[in-house]
C-alpha cells in the first residue's frame, strides 16, 4: 500500500471522503450482521425451547398423528382420483357403447371436508435457485402381483430454505407409480 499522501488539498479531501464513505458502508454491514446474529440467536432459543420443552413429547405425538391422518387421507384421495380418471378414459373411449349407464358406486364421492386450513400458498418465484431431490422407490415391482411399476405422474413439494441469508428452493419429487399388470397405485414414501 502506498503511504505517501499527495500535496494537493483537493485530492486529500477526495481521499478522505472516499475513506469516510467506506467506513459508513462497513458500519452498515456490521449493524446488519449484528441484527442477523441476534435474530438467529432468538430463533435458536425458540427452537430449543420447542424441542426440549416440557410438552414437546405431547406435541410430537400429536403432530405425528396428524401427519399419519393426512397421509392416509391423501392416499385415499389419490386412489379415488385415479379411479375417476380411469372411468373418464373408459367413458370417452366407449362413447359408441349402448350401455352408457353410470356405475353403481360413485368413486369420486368423498366425506365432507373437515373444516381446516387449505393450502393457498402461491408457488415460489422461478428466479430463486433450486435444488431438486428425486425420491425413487426402493422397489420397482408391484407388491400385489410382482408386475413392473411404471410412472404415471409425480408430486412436487417446495420448501423455502435460507442459507447464509440467501434463499433457494428445495423441490422434492415423488413419482406416482402404477402396476402395468394389476393397476395397483403407489407413491414413493418419505
From TrEMBL:
Superkingdom of origin organism: Bacteria
Domain Transposase TnpC homeodomain: 39-132
Keyword check for Ribonucleoprotein: no
Positions of region (Disordered): 87-137
Transmembrane helix is among the record's keywords: no
Domain Transposase IS66 zinc-finger binding residue range list: 139-183
Family annotation (InterPro entries): Transposase-related (IPR052344), Transposase_TnpC_homeodom (IPR024463), Znf_dom_IS66 (IPR024474)
SUPFAM superfamilies (UniProt xref): Spectrin repeat
Keyword entries, A-Z: Plasmid
PANTHER family named in the record: BLL1576 PROTEIN
Protein name: Putative IS orf
Organism: Shigella flexneri serotype 5a (strain M90T)
UniProt gene name: S0217
Amino acid at each position: 500500500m502506498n503511504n505517501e499522501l499527495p500535496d494537493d488539498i483537493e485530492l486529500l479531501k477526495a481521499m478522505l471522503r472516499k475513506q469516510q464513505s467506506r467506513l459508513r458502508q462497513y458500519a452498515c454491514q456490521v449493524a446488519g450482521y449484528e441484527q442477523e446474529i441476534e435474530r438467529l440467536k432468538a430463533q435458536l432459543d425458540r427452537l430449543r425451547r420447542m424441542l426440549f420443552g416440557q410438552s414437546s413429547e405431547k406435541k410430537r405425538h400429536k403432530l405425528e398423528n396428524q401427519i399419519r391422518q393426512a397421509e392416509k387421507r391423501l392416499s385415499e384421495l389419490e386412489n379415488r382420483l385415479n379411479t375417476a380418471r380411469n372411468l373418464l378414459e373408459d367413458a370417452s373411449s366407449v362413447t359408441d357403447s349402448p350401455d352408457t349407464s353410470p356405475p353403481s358406486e360413485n368413486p369420486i364421492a368423498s366425506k365432507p371436508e373437515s373444516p381446516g386450513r387449505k393450502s393457498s400458498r402461491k408457488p415460489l418465484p422461478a428466479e430463486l435457485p433450486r435444488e431438486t431431490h428425486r425420491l425413487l422407490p426402493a422397489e420397482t415391482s408391484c407388491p400385489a402381483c410382482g408386475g413392473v411399476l411404471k410412472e404415471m405422474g409425480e408430486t412436487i413439494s417446495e420448501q423455502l430454505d435460507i442459507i447464509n441469508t440467501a434463499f433457494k428452493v428445495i423441490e422434492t419429487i415423488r413419482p406416482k407409480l402404477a402396476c402395468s399388470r394389476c393397476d395397483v397405485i403407489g407413491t414413493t414414501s418419505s
